[in-house]
Structures are given as structure tokens and as C-alpha cells.
Amino acid sequence: MRVLTALPIHNEAAYVKSVLSELLTHTREVLAVDDGSNDATPNLLRGFPQVKVIRHPVNLGYGASLRSAFAFALQHGYDALATIDCDGQHQPSLIAQLVTALTTTSADIVSGSRYLSHHPGDARPPEDRRRINLNITQTLNQLFGWRLTDAFCGFKVYRREALERFDITENGYAMPLQLWVQAYRWNLRIHEEPVPLIYLEEARAFGGALDNPAIRLNHYLDVLRGELERQGLHHLLGRSEASLTP
């Protein structure tokens, strides 16, 4: 199986060198999507000529970066795409575990879960992130009859056939809501694989109004409702009407 590993990157000069150095010890096919970085990230990426690079001239958002990675993987004939964040919170050594799960479970998407099991040294996430993740995860489960435990982990492996189904239009951090709705629509098989819960000490901003947890949750629910409508699944809204109301 030919697997590409992609990293969405925006202003990660503090981490990009160490993450890529470790990543290249575990996989040879790496794509960096530089989403309009204006720090030292572009210069640091030039130090890794073996890494393929897509550069967005301006910052478009997390969802736009993954959309570029999806398109690249399809265009260049990869069988699967792994996605991993470039902030030190995911462990490149676990990519092989997720890829193996893709084949042994016949899944279309293997999604890392930080809550499926406990790992020694697991961190405690910021309370607002934990609460919003729990809210959205429970809502998805009620809507679709799933048993997800982590709706927002960016550490995933996608089978090519899954990538071919996606029509992602959400540029920002709400992109996973579109992904899950479309996965349900196309009856994609999902498997969660446990990964450690790692959070860095410094604060990470979502940007603008989304730094407010209440506004962020409202935005996620709006995107979820909108995607259900767009995919012709509005009839499911009654299954979780309470959860879709902040």
C-alpha cells in the first residue's frame, strides 16, 4: 500500500524541524501543506528537499490545508493518506499502527482517539476543548448511531476510496463536521485507534471570535446543521435536536 503522510502547517517554526525529522524516520512519502506561514516555517521546509510542499500564498485554514492534501493524494495515485499535526501533539511512530488498522479492519477511515483508552502520561486537555469535543462527539453518535469517542483528532488514515467521496468546502477548524456527515452519507467504515492524549503547555488560539468557547461551539453546530441539509440528511435532525441546540 502506497501511503502519503500530510501535515497542515501554519507558523510552526518552533516544531516543524523536529516533527519532520522524526516523521522521516517512520515514513518516506511526506507532504507539507504550508498554509500561508509568515514566520521561519518556509525557510525551514527548504531544509527538507525530500518533503513535498504545497504552499498557500495566504492563510486559508485547517480545512483548506486538508483539502489540498486530499487532492494531492488523489492526483498522485496514493492508496491511502495519513494526516498528522505539526505541533508535536501526535506521534509519528504510530502511523504504522493506524495504517495496519486500515487494512486489518477493512476500514475506510482510521481515526485516532485520545479518549478510547488511557496511556501513561496522558495530559488533561483544556476544559473548553474537552467539553466541546464531548458535546460534538455525543451529537454525532446520536445522529448516526455511532460509538465515536473523539470527533476532533486530526491523526487519521484515509483509504483512497474515502477521499474520492469527500466534497469539503469548510476552510476552518469545523471541517471535521463536514467529513463525518459525508462519511455517514456514503456509508464509510470507521475504526478508532487509541493514541496518547498530548497537549502542549502554551496556549493555542483558534483565531478571532472562535477563541470564545460558546461562539466556537455554536459555529460547529451551525456547520453540522448546514452539512446535514447540504447532503440531504435534514431528516436526521430530530434525532439530536437537543444536542444541536447549544
Automatic annotation (TrEMBL):
The keyword Transferase applies. Keywords: Transferase. Pfam families: Glycos_transf_2 (PF00535). InterPro entries: Glyco_trans_2-like (IPR001173), Glycosyltransferase_2 (IPR050256), Nucleotide-diphossugar_trans (IPR029044). Residues 7-165 form the Glycosyltransferase 2-like domain. SUPFAM superfamilies: Nucleotide-diphospho-sugar transferases. The keyword tRNA processing does not apply. GO terms for molecular function: transferase activity. PANTHER family: RFBJ PROTEIN, UNDECAPRENYL-PHOSPHATE 4-DEOXY-4-FORMAMIDO-L-ARABINOSE TRANSFERASE-RELATED. This is Glycosyl transferase family 2. The lineage of its organism: Bacteria, Pseudomonadati, Planctomycetota, Planctomycetia, Isosphaerales.
